[in-house]
Amino acid sequence: ANPASVGGRFIAAMGHVRMMAAAQPFLSGAISKTVNLPHDSTVQTIEEVFLQSWKLGLKAIALYRGEFRPSASLAQPYVMIGVPLIAAATDAEAEFLASSVHQRVLGILHGDRRCLPPPVKDFIASLHPQERAAIGQFLAAAVIGGPSTVRAGLAALKQATAADEFMLVCDIFDPDLRLRSLDIAAAACKA
After folding, report:
1. Which segments of the chain are extended strands (E)?
2. What's this model's pTM, rounded to 2 decimal places?
3. With 90 as the cut, is the pLDDT of residue 145 above it?
4. Is the C-alpha dihedral spanning 145, 84, 136, 25 positive or negative?
């Protein structure tokens, strides 16, 4: 929160997030609470608030649906979620292709953003367990696999979120394989 104009006591933004996460298990719905950020907040600060809120399981979708007010442009709530997708002919090929996004996420976590790198065999196995866990948390909603794994993963996400629409994000190094990934996902959804 912004420092008080009188006095020196205030709750930091992450304090708000932790307070909501601590209280949420005792509530049947979501918490309606604004996290106030100081005017000098950086993009990294805002990103951290969102990431920690997500990691702590705050119920943003439930809150949105519960507090939705119809308008001239939207009569009912509509939820679209971004889904990292790596679809390939087999689970093994998809895991190999996913090494590009794993490298990118590791770079983001280390503050080293770069262009999407080519895939690397056994990349994830070469990492420290904490790095693997961090990448797993970052990509918790990712669907990575062959056609049946993609079908099951998208169905599980639909079940968990009741999203109206998925926005698929395919961070695959080879543009042709990126398009193939979307084709596999489309076929999986029709099956």
Report:
1. 80-87, 143-145, 165-169
2. 0.69
3. yes
4. negative
